[in-house]
Design brief:
222 residues, 6 helices, five-stranded antiparallel beta sheet, Alpha-Beta Plaits, Rossmann fold, 2 domains, six-stranded parallel beta sheet
Length: 222
């Protein structure tokens, strides 16, 4: 897999290192001289391109035509959006990921602008704070890009009404699927209707956004 990263700041360099650790080929585009020189020392010279991510010639020099993914993580929403649009509609990049700096600009990060996945750090942090306050037993592990689906982990409270009951009696919402139950140190259980819930079970579920509070209530204190 080939990935072109636009923006060689802390986010870009961190993403670059993570990808290299997973044997993914990268090119980083950076237009600030100081950061460019640092990147050449941190990575090899052939992995770093000096120029603007909104310049088609610079993108071509970075091998955009053979890239599978473009990641735009500069500190400028304008640059990230323009780069995304060029990558998607001029070079037909299959996957475009872009960083949202100003939450007010989040509405612009859509398919029409060439963005497949937007990363809005403010929104993510906000959701985490709300979930920590309102749903102490449920933790979001991953939000899926399609629909309002998430993979979550629920810890069964020892005083929950769900304890010692089979799953078929818990009135699990239809928009929720139990994936697995992690019990004790190393026991993994594939949940079925007649599987009984035990205190401190960690349950992995695929849930719709509208059902998260219902699930939290089922497994929290009764």
């Amino acid at each position: 897999m080939n990935v072109v990263i636009i923006g060689g700041g802390k986010a870009g360099s961190h993403i670059g290192n993570l990808l290299l650790e997973n044997d993914i080929s990268i090119k980083i585009i950076e237009n600030r001289e100081i950061h460019f020189e640092k990147l050449k020392k941190e990575f090899s010279e052939e992995k770093v391109i000096f120029g603007s991510g909104t310049d088609p010639n610079t993108l071509e020099a970075a091998g955009i035509e053979s890239a599978d993914v473009l990641v735009a993580v500069t500190g400028s929403d304008e640059v990230n959006l323009v780069a995304s649009t060029i990558a998607k509609f001029e070079f037909a990049i299959p996957r475009v990921v872009a960083r949202v700096n100003n939450p007010r600009n989040a509405w612009l990060y859509n398919k029409n602008m060439g963005v497949d996945v937007s990363i809005n750090q403010s929104e993510i942090i906000g959701h985490i704070v709300v979930e920590e306050m309102d749903m102490e037993n449920i933790a979001t592990l991953m939000k899926l890009n399609r629909g309002n689906l998430s993979i979550v982990k629920v810890t069964v409270n020892t005083k929950s009404n769900a304890v010692s009951k089979p799953i078929k009696e818990l009135n699990i919402p239809s928009k929720c699927v139990l994936i697995a139950i992690l019990r004790k140190a190393d026991e993994v259980i594939i949940p079925r209707g007649d599987t009984f819930i035990e205190p401190n079970d960690n349950i992995l579920l695929l849930v719709d956004e509208s059902t998260e509070k219902v699930i939290n209530n089922i497994f929290s204190v009764g």
